[in-house]
Amino acid sequence: MRSLILLGAPGAGKGTQGALLTKRYGTRRIATGDLLRDAVRRGTPLGQKAKGFLDAGELVPDDVVLDLVREVLAQSERSGVVFDGFPRTLPQAEGLDRLLDELDQPLEAVVVIEVPEDVLVQRLSGRRQCPHCGAVHNVYFTPPRQPGVCDRCGANLAQRSDDDAATVRRRLTVYREQTEPLVAYYRRRGTPVHVLKGDGSAGDVHRDLVRILER
Ligand code: AMP
Question: Which residues have CB under 8 Å from 199's CB, separation 6+?
Answer without folding.
Answer: 115, 116, 119
